[in-house]
Design a protein that fits this description.
The chain is an alpha/beta fold. The chain is 36% helix and 22% strand. The strands form 6 sheets. A 7-stranded mixed β-sheet has the order 3-4-2-1-5-6-7, with helices on both faces. Strands 9-8-11-10-12-13-14 form a 7-stranded mixed β-sheet, sandwiched between helices. The longest helix has 21 residues. The radius of gyration is 32 Å and the shape is globular.
Length: 891
């Protein structure tokens, strides 16, 4: 049972502050509980009464005499800290605090909220709120809110920071036939926030789809981890308020200025595999679609219509919404030519004309569903005499049933069209009332499929690459910090890039004209000069850059002009000299920018887009969360406008796409490895068909974070834990490599399960008959969220063959994890299992788990022996059980 089960599905509820006064908060909550049909125990708590509305009333929670599952608090806010303490004494572990008067009221309220949080921690109480609407669990009749109406039972979970939005959505959903498994108002979220609530909903078998209304996130790492875990198995739809708020502090880099908090939030959602909607109506539409509709494999849409106008409207909106119209294959065109009148549209949209009968509609739809060039079909229908809407709908439903591709419908008109939409909805097909809404719905489905693919991308570490010199990077930052600087000089920035294999031209520092001439002799002409000053962020703003210097006379002239103009523009700036570097000239070059910024919620973020001096004016950049792999980097690049000119056009050859991806992933590695790297601009990153090179770079550091952080607390997504890669030897001297599993290990994992372990070993590992791994199982075993789970594999140093694996996953109690370990039959009884388990227990302990549990079959003598040798407790009566649960305290 999940540790929050009794909070969200209690068997007994006490209303603290229950009242007989009509219209009071305590009275409304009590009446909602009684009127909702809650079958559990309802108790009133208020020292003023012995009975409230026929419910026995106690003076305190402790006076009840036994713990209740849930206490709902409807008292003035000032009383809440003492009520939490009373709950702890009475053994009440779950509370929902409806009371207002906390952080939303100012300093005094924030202090009161801090007192509540301290009492919660001290007494081991878990709390929703304060200042929330409450919670509902319709399947058990629980309505512990002060809302006017109750939700109907269903499979959608709604979690919202706004109580008003919950009330409106529940009311609207009732009219649409949408029911809820849980309705949760988080309020201030001073204790339980989205992350832990998502953990519960992931485990909750009654929930199939999750809706989130978010105004802000308190714990980004927990939020992202919970969201990614839930989104792997359940569709999630998010609406975010406050989209246009600016960042919380001024940034020193272009990237910091461009990375507004909404763009960062959007990037986080994309990496979590969830759909973001912008409107209130879109939230319920998305919930209905994702919960019922088939998902397209791609984003190509075929449109079928019985009239030209609706088809044109749909095509126009598709262009506006970024939805790709499918190109019809020659075989499809041939089939349509054979079955449609000569006047048909001969393209997509497919207009079957207003005199179409049922046979023509069926033939056209079947042809489109058979075309591998489309991923879904949108059928538009408007009223006509020859084919009633009800019959057309039945034809569409019957034809769609025979295909795996999704079919969406739109019924344009009034009463008659309602008959058609009713038929297709009964068949499980989505029905819309306009071409635009149907196209938008398909776009949402296609986007969901795209972000689900991004969710399953777990980047491997490149920090183990020999090109990455983390130690040298650390020395650069330490030297700058020792000098009292938070900004690296340009030469230092270029050295930092070199530590991670990002190409940059060589630079020399000239403090005098003589130094500049010496540098020119070493580097050769043409040259570029740049001012070197710790006080100047953007050199071009003060005319601090000179390009195209081709001889000694030009060097002398531009050197003097550069210093004079910078001193005139910034007389307060400290001038430490001039940077001299070769002028990189590329005939077909494009200027790009790669940046790093720090978001106050999600930590380090990456930016990619158009570069040059007009970067903030153009604002052609996208935000991504590290860590990246090549596919994630390519996806970032594709979302920019400048990506359109990176390909070949006219006489211009295509840019070196692989080099751009390489640079972006290397910067991602840099961000993961260096917690002190808080801002960076590589601008411009000049790319052509041959390579790309960083012409300029600006780096801001945080001297307080110079120590490496193997928990990666500066990131929202936990990267591959490279520090767990080790070499080891068995007792007989056999050399092994032990490391965390990676997504690209899928083939190794499949071979291990299907060929390296016997049927008996598979039975003891999976507690049942498993002969092969489905793609879903394989993905689940290799694509991990390292924040919450881990799998260590042992590889033979000689053959690189996988010989064993040990993994842990979190238990629903939030503080323990369950392990599983398997060793290839040919390698058993040689110590590999002990080695893997010892490493796994160390990692689980380091991750904060207190206990490790395991389920073992009674006849698995080898595992029971191993467990006892590792200090696991094996129950004395275990042998009579079907499955033995063993436990070890990790300390």
């Amino acid at each position: 049972m999940h540790y929050l089960e009794r909070l969200f599905a209690p068997r007994s509820v006490a209303v603290v502050g229950a009242s007989q006064r009509s219209g009071s908060l305590g009275n409304i909550v009590l009446e909602n509980l009684r009127g909702g049909g809650f079958a559990g125990e309802i108790i009133a708590v208020n020292p003023k009464y012995s009975q409230v509305a026929g419910v026995r009333c106690y003076p305190s929670l402790e006076a009840i005499g036994h713990p209740v599952d849930l206490a709902v608090v409807a008292t003035p806010g000032a009383a809440v800290p003492s009520i939490v303490r009373d709950a702890g004494t009475a053994g009440v572990r779950h509370m929902v605090v409806l009371s207002a008067g906390f952080g939303e009221t100012g300093p005094a309220g924030r202090e009161l909220e801090a007192q509540v949080a301290a009492a919660v921690r001290e007494h081991g109480v878990r709390l929703i709120g304060p200042n929330c609407l409450g919670i509902m669990r319709p399947s058990i009749g629980l309505n512990a809110t002060f809302a006017r109406g109750a939700a109907r039972a269903g499979a959608v979970a709604l979690v919202s920071q706004s109580g008003a939005l919950i009330t409106a959505l529940v009311d609207a959903a009732t009219g649409l036939g949408i029911g809820f498994s849980s309705v949760i108002s988080t309020g201030a979220g001073s204790d339980l926030d989205f992350g832990e609530i998502l953990d519960f909903l992931t485990w909750d078998s009654a929930t199939r789809t999750i809706l989130l209304y978010i105004e802000g996130v308190h714990d980004a790492r927990r939020f992202v981890s919970g969201l990614r875990a839930a989104a792997r198995i359940k569709p999630i739809v998010v609406i975010k308020a406050g989209r246009h708020l600016s960042g919380s502090k001024a940034a020193m880099s272009h990237t910091g200025a461009l990375a507004g908090n909404d763009a960062v939030f959007d990037a986080a959602l994309r990496r979590c595999g969830v759909v973001r909607v912008r409107t209130y109506d879109g939230m319920l539409t998305a919930a209905g679609l994702l919960g019922a509709a088939r998902l397209p494999q791609g984003g190509r849409l075929a449109i079928l219509t019985n009239g030209g106008g609706p088809g044109v409207l749909a095509a126009d909106y598709a262009a506006d919404a970024g939805v790709e119209l499918a190109g019809l294959a020659p075989a499809t065109l041939e089939a349509l030519n054979a079955r449609l009148p000569p006047q048909w549209s001969h393209g997509n949209p497919v207009d079957i004309l207003g005199d179409a009968d049922a046979a023509r509609l069926q033939a056209a739809l079947a042809s489109l569903l058979a075309d591998d060039g489309s991923d879904a079909v949108l059928a538009l229908f408007y009223p006509q005499l020859l084919l009633p809407a009800r019959i057309a709908a039945q034809v569409i439903a019957d034809t769609a049933r025979a295909s795996a591709r999704p079919v969406l419908t739109a019924w344009l008109g009034g009463a008659e069209m309602q008959a058609g939409s009713a038929v297709v909805e009964a068949a499980g097909l989505p029905a819309f009332r306009s071409p635009e809404s149907a196209v938008a719905a398909f776009g949402m489905l296609a986007e969901y499929r795209r972000v689900q693919r991004l969710l399953h991308e777990v980047p491997p570490p490149r920090t183990r690459d020999s090109a990455h010199d983390v130690d040298a990077a650390q020395r650069l930052a330490a030297a700058a910090a020792a000098a009292g600087r938070t900004v690296l000089t340009e030469p230092e920035s270029k050295q930092l890039l070199a530590c991670f294999g990002v190409a940059a031209p060589p630079v020399l520092i000239a403090k005098t004209m003589e130094d500049a001439h010496t540098a020119a002799q070493r580097l050769g002409y043409p040259l570029a000069l740049k001012i070197l000053s710790p006080d100047i962020s953007h050199k071009s703003d003060v005319k601090g850059v000179r390009l195209g210097i081709r001889d000694e006379a030009g060097l002398a002239r531009e050197y003097e002009r550069l210093l004079a103009e910078v001193r005139a523009a910034r007389p307060d700036a400290r001038i430490e000299g001039v940077v001299v570097q070769p002028l990189i000239e590329k005939r077909f070059g494009r200027e790009l920018m790669i940046g790093v910024a720090t978001d106050p919620v999600f930590g380090r973020v990456l930016s990619f887009g158009a570069g040059g001096v007009a970067v903030e004016l153009l604002r052609d950049n996208v935000i991504g969360l590290p860590p990246l792999n090549r596919l994630l980097a390519q996806e970032m690049i594709a979302r920019t406008r400048i990506s359109r000119v990176l390909g070949a056009y006219r006489q211009v050859p295509a840019a070196d796409a692989a080099a751009i991806v390489d640079a972006l992933t290397r910067v991602s590695d840099m961000v993961c490895a260096l917690p002190w790297l808080v801002e960076m601009d590589i601008n411009p990153l000049l790319v052509d068909d041959a390579d790309c090179v960083a012409l300029d770079a600006r780096v801001v550091i945080d001297p307080a974070r110079l120590q490496p952080d193997r928990h990666y607390r500066h990131l929202a997504i936990h990267p591959y834990p490279a520090h767990l890669e080790t070499r080891a030897a068995l007792a007989d001297g056999t050399a092994l490599r032990v490391r965390p599993i990676r997504p690209e290990d899928a083939a190794l994992e499949r071979d291990f399960v299907e060929h390296q372990i016997s049927e008996q070993s598979r039975r003891t590992r999976f507690l049942g008959a498993v002969r092969t791994l489905t793609p879903e199982m394989l993905a689940r075993l290799t694509q991990l969220d390292y924040e919450r789970e881990l799998a260590l594999i042992a590889l033979s140093e000689d053959t690189d063959q996988m010989i064993g694996v040990a993994r842990y996953n979190p238990n629903p109690d939030g503080e323990s994890c369950e392990f599983a370990v398997t060793v290839a039959d040919a390698w058993q009884r040689r110590g590999a299992g002990t080695l893997l388990m010892e490493r796994l227990m160390d990692a689980a302990r380091d991750a904060g788990y207190r206990r490790m549990t395991g389920n073992v079959l009674p006849d698995n003598d080898a595992m029971l022996h191993l467990a006892r040798s590792l200090g696991f407790e094996v129950p004395a009566t275990a042998m009579a059980s079907t499955v033995i649960e063993i436990t070890r305290v990790l300390g």
